[in-house]
Amino acid sequence: MSALIGLVKLAFANLQIxxxxxxxxxxxxxxxxxxxxxxxxxxxxxxxxxxxxxxxMGTNVVNIVADGSxxxxxxxxxxxxxxxxxxxxxxxxxxxxMNFKMTFGVNSTPIRIVGVxxxxxxxxxxxxxxxxxxxxYDNTHSALVGVIGAQIKxxxxxxxxxxxxxVHVTDQNGSYVFRVSAILxxxxxxxxxxxxxxxxxxxxxxxxxxxQTSGPTLLAGTLYNDERSSVTREQVKAILGKAFPSGLxxxxxxxxxxxxxxxxKKQNLVGICLAMISLVTGGVGIxxxxxxSVAQRKKEIGLRKAVGAxxxxxxxxxxxxxxxxxxxxxxxxxxxxxxxxQQVAKMMGQWEAVLNLSTIAMALCCAVLTGxxxxxxxxxxxxxxxPYEALRx
Length: 393
Known about the structure:
Helices cover 57% and strands 19% of the residues. It has helices spanning 2-17, 19-56, 75-84, 119-123, 136-140, 150-157, 203-209, 229-240, 253-296, 298-306, 311-348, 357-383, 387-392; strands at 61-66, 88-104, 107-116, 128-131, 145-148, 166-171, 174-184, 198-202, 218-223, 248-252. The two termini are 33 Å apart.
């Protein structure tokens, strides 16, 4: 143990003597390790953010979509599912249309209108920023009320209060005056969702305004037990499959989360491969500088061997120097990589870079491994020098 401590002290002393060479060697590792950390931390932050967004919409929600060419999902289909699938706590019909524009004063913006009954809000996790939801009375009477997304509120009202304001909603069939009853909390676009640019209205209102709504009809069902989600989806297909021969699809948040996690894992792998190229480049630089160091320190090596230093001692000395250089570069690279990871995350989305202990450990292990792999050849060369020839040189 004392011999190892002595070698470490000797390595630091040699690095201090050759400061410029040591700094140049460390820089290569900083770039390599920083690239690894920046890639993994920004991707991990994005992955966790998207997972949280999907979970916030409810992991117990199953969406049932019918291909429009086979017809639409009706109240009869909804009744069949309620009767024969015991895991459904609620089934809410959903219809949507993209061909509307909303105007307030001189401001206007294209919107997506989604028609749902009040139970949809009770079962899903769409939270309000202000106002109140429409109720079953509004749905029964096809009231012209709407719950608007945060982006629509910004585009049309800015900092002004939008609750109970009247807006014009137009499409190719006419213009309608809606009252804003509530505003949803901002959700962002990291999941590809356009909820912030969506207006929710009573489903009967949308059926009245746009009876030929483009796109499929959807049923959003919440489950008593989300662990049985896959079984429930199979039951839905068995019950309604014959009624929709051209296509009936089901999806849930669990499936979306798993797919998202899979995508980000692949991106992490690609990022790691690219970052490893930087590490290899840094490692080659370390090997070249260490070989130069061996050539410049021949007399020192010869003198140490002349007074009794073994080949193993010389090999260990140079190998430890390489490892220390890589470790220092790795530690600084982690800090640099975390900074750049945060900047990348801010530019690409609304998340923050996340640096796990496992990522730090992996980066440091890679740094040590780089030192060992690329420092081994110079260390072996130093250990094999003949002391007589070394002193002569």
